[in-house]
Automatic annotation (TrEMBL), chain A:
Pfam families: GTP_cyclohydroI
Subunit-level organization: Toroid-shaped homodecamer, composed of two pentamers of five dimers.
Protein's name in the database: GTP cyclohydrolase 1
Species lineage: Eukaryota, Metazoa, Ecdysozoa, Arthropoda, Hexapoda
Catalytic reaction annotation: GTP + H2O = 7,8-dihydroneopterin 3'-triphosphate + formate + H(+)
Species in which this protein is naturally found: Bombyx mandarina
All copies of domain GTP cyclohydrolase I, residue ranges: 115-290
Similarity comment: Belongs to the GTP cyclohydrolase I family.
UniProt GO cellular component terms: cytoplasm
TrEMBL record, chain B:
A GO cellular component annotation in the UniProt record: cytoplasm
Molecular function via GO: GTP binding; GTP cyclohydrolase I activity; zinc ion binding
Subunit structure: Toroid-shaped homodecamer, composed of two pentamers of five dimers.
Family annotation (NCBIfam families): folE, PRK09347.1-2, PRK09347.1-3
InterPro entries linked to this entry: GTP-CH-I_C/QueF (IPR043133), GTP-CH-I_N (IPR043134), GTP_CycHdrlase_I (IPR001474), GTP_CycHdrlase_I_CS (IPR018234), GTP_CycHdrlase_I_dom (IPR020602)
UniProt organism field: Bombyx mandarina (Wild silk moth)
Gene name tied to this protein: LOC114248290
GO biological process, one term: tetrahydrobiopterin biosynthetic process
UniProt protein name: GTP cyclohydrolase 1
C-alpha cells in the first residue's frame, strides 16, 4: 500500500486518527520557500514560488513570505493524497469524481464523529433510537466531512496545470460563483457569491479553476475575511497577475437563524491586490463589472 | 386543551420523541440572559442549559475528529458557542402550545378566510443536522373564534425550532391551529430550501420543496382551496 503522508498504514492496526493528519505549521510554511524536506511534499508548496522568486513589477509591495504564511492558518489540517494512491470507485462520499477519488484518509474518522453526534443528540434531549434519527449520527458526520473537504485538497492538484500562455492583459472577471462554507465560530453554514477578477500578465487560468479555488478554501471552517484573502492569494500564486480582486457577498446563518436574527442582512468582504489596490480606476471598473446585471 | 380530532397536545409533542419539561409560570427570570432571545416567553429556569457542558464536549470531540485543532485562536470557544446555537435551534422542545398562545383567542362573528403568509421559518433537518429554511403560509376559516395573528407565527416557531422533517412540520402546524380555535378548516403551505440538498449531495441550488396540509373545508371544497392558494401566491 502506498505511503500516505509519509506513514506506512500497514504497520498500524488501530489507527489513531489525528496522527494521520499532517498539520500546517508556520515554520514549515516559511521554510517551504527555501529548501523543503518535509515528507517529500516539497514540490507542492515550492513549485509556484520556486519559479517566480522574483516578484513582478506590479507586485513589488506584495511580500511572498507573508503570502505563503497567511494562506494557511497554522494548525489547519492538511490531508492531501498523492497521485499514486488507489481510489475508491464506487464511493458515495466524494461528490467530485474527477478530483476526489482518493483513499479515505479522513473517512477513518467517521466512527468517532458519529459518536460525537450521537452524544450531541442525547444532550439535546432527543432520542437517538427513534425512527427519524436512527442513522442521523452517521449521516451528519458524513455531511460535516463533506463540508470540510477543502482540507483534503491542495492548490496544485486542483489547478491541474490549467495555466495557459496568452498574450492578453485585459481584465478577466468570473462573478457570482456560489460559495458554501461553515462558520468556525458556531459551526453553522454561511453561503454567498464570490466574484473574482484579475489582470493577467501573460498567463491565464482555466475559468473553472477559479471556481475550484473557491471550493478548496470555502469547504473548511472559515471566517469570511480569511476566505476572501486566501482566494486572492491563491490566484496570485497561480498565475502571477498584475492584480487580483475578490469580492464575497455572504449570508451568515449564525446571524439569520439565531442571535440578532436579521434575515436580509449580507456581509460583504473584499481583497484587492496589486493594481486593484493601487489604481482606483481599475478597482472601479472591476466593481462595475461585478455589479452589472 | 381538550381532545380535538382525536389528537392531543401531548401527542403532538411526542411525535418527535422529545421530552417535555414542566414549566412554572412565575419563576425568577434571568434578565441578562443571552441564550433566550424571546424575552417574553423564554425566561424560565434553564432546564436544558444544564446540558451545555456535555454538548460542548461533543462538539470538541467533533472538531478533533475533523482533524482541526480545537486550541487554535478561532476555535477556542467554538464548542460552547456551537452548543448554545444548537440549543437555540431546538428550543421548540421547551415550549408548549398553551403557553405560547397565551389566551389570545377572541370571539368574533366572522367566517371569512384569514391568511397569514410568508412567515419565515428556520428549522434543522433531522437527517443531516443541517438547517433548512423557508416561508410558511397559514390560512383558516374561523367558526366564531379567531386567533391573535402573531400567535400563528409563534406556532410556526415552536414546531420549526426542532429536529424536523418538512412534512411533519406542516402537519403539526395545521393540527395546532385546529386545536387552538376549532375552525371550519385549516390550510398550511411551506416552501422550503434544504441546505442538505444545496450544500451537499445533489447540490441543486435553486430547488425548493413545497409541502401542504389541508384540513376541514380546505380538503373537501376545491374552491376554498383554490382561493387560499390564490391569496398565498399573489404578489
Amino acid at each position: 500500500m502506498a505511503a500516505v503522508n509519509g506513514k506506512d498504514l500497514n504497520s498500524e492496526a488501530a489507527v489513531p486518527p489525528s496522527s494521520l493528519i499532517r498539520r500546517v505549521s508556520s515554520r514549515s510554511i516559511r521554510n517551504s520557500i527555501s529548501e523543503e524536506k518535509e515528507n517529500g511534499d516539497a514540490p507542492q508548496k515550492g513549485s509556484f514560488v520556486g519559479k517566480y522568486k522574483k516578484a513582478p513589477e506590479a507586485l513589488k509591495s506584495f511580500n511572498l513570505a507573508d503570502a505563503e504564511s497567511e494562506l494557511e492558518v497554522p494548525g489547519t489540517p492538511m490531508t492531501p493524497r498523492t497521485s499514486t494512491t488507489p481510489g475508491h470507485e464506487n464511493c458515495t462520499f466524494h461528490h467530485d469524481l474527477e478530483l476526489d477519488h482518493r483513499p479515505p484518509t479522513r473517512e477513518a474518522l467517521l466512527p468517532d464523529m458519529a459518536n460525537s453526534y450521537r452524544l450531541l443528540l442525547t444532550g439535546l434531549g432527543e432520542d437517538p433510537e427513534r425512527a427519524g434519527l436512527l442513522k442521523t449520527p452517521e449521516r451528519a458526520a458524513k455531511a460535516m466531512l463533506f463540508f470540510t473537504k477543502g482540507y483534503d485538497q491542495s492548490l496544485e492538484e486542483v489547478l491541474n496545470n490549467a495555466i495557459f500562455d496568452e498574450d492578453t492583459d485585459e481584465m478577466v472577471v468570473v462573478k457570482d460563483i456560489e460559495m458554501f462554507s461553515m462558520c468556525e465560530h458556531h459551526l453553522v453554514p454561511f453561503y454567498g457569491k464570490v466574484s473574482i477578477g484579475y489582470l493577467p500578465q501573460g498567463k491565464i487560468l482555466g475559468l473553472s479553476k477559479l471556481a475550484r479555488i473557491v471550493e478548496i478554501f470555502s469547504r473548511r471552517l472559515q471566517v469570511q475575511e480569511r476566505l476572501t484573502k486566501q482566494i486572492a492569494i491563491a490566484v496570485t500564486q497561480a498565475v502571477r497577475p498584475a492584480g487580483v480582486a475578490v469580492v464575497i457577498e455572504g449570508v451568515h446563518m449564525c446571524m439569520v437563524m439565531r442571535g440578532v436574527q436579521k434575515i436580509n442582512s449580507k456581509t460583504v468582504t473584499s481583497t484587492m491586490l496589486g493594481v486593484f489596490r493601487d489604481d482606483p480606476k481599475t478597482r472601479e471598473e472591476f466593481l462595475n463589472l461585478v455589479h452589472s446585471k
